[in-house]
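Hi C.,

You asked whether I'd gotten around to modeling the 266-residue construct. I have! Everything is below, sequence then structure, no commentary in between.
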Amino acid sequence: MRLSGLIAIVFLLLSSPVRASSLSYQGTHILTYRTMYELSEAYYQKTGIKVQVRGGGCADGISSVLHGRALMGGLCCPLPEEFLKKKGLVAYRVASDIKVAVVNPENPINSITLDELRAVHRGKIKSWSYFGWIKKPIALIFRKHCLDMKEPLRGLLGIDSRLSVLSKKTIIVRTDKSLIDYVSSFKTALGVTSKVFTEGRAVKVLRINGIEPTAENVIKGLYPLYTPLYVIVKKENLSRVSDFIRFMQSKEGREIINRHLSEVRR
């Protein structure tokens, strides 16, 4: 190959950030599962820039950003402003997680109020007979996580971080998968999880206050059981990820988010 031709190829490679650039994300599985993969693929098709996506939890999202393993970290729990400031982080609220009450498919109940759901979790409603069904105890399944953070779902259900008011007979699990497995296996079970994880699973999703758990109803302010999702970035890396954040907030990005989660209410 002639020298001039080689120089031309090198110049093209160096002047083509579309193929040479890449971004990275790690964090909460709620945002990772389906949504971030679909956003990543759409962004790649649009710009040629790949976003490497890895799952985990809030702790993974924080650690990966602070230690330089990822440019963006996903969180389902908000970080205190003083922590963000101290660590040089910026937090973007990028979506809402649609939380749903789920029961076994054999359960004839189709709707529950938010107050009733709180009462079940606090042990004030203990039997399915309260809802006009069988006289058997409600087998409450609860996912325990992020106890050292201000986890929004606990706040919505009136539960403190020590779980001191949680019904004493609650079955505690560590993952949403375990919660859904329990509910799909036991006729009298009930739990709260993210709607995205119920897709294709053998559970019945209940209406809350008679309202269907859809992105449209969250956006309209009709459905009450949803929690925020965040992406955190080091200030020094803002210029590298700002275009992808804008894409997430664009019409195309919001349409992708609304497939499994909900865009942020404006």
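If it helps when you're writing up: Residues 19-95+228-260 form a domain with the D-Maltodextrin-Binding Protein; domain 2 fold (CATH 3.40.190.10).

Thanks,
B.
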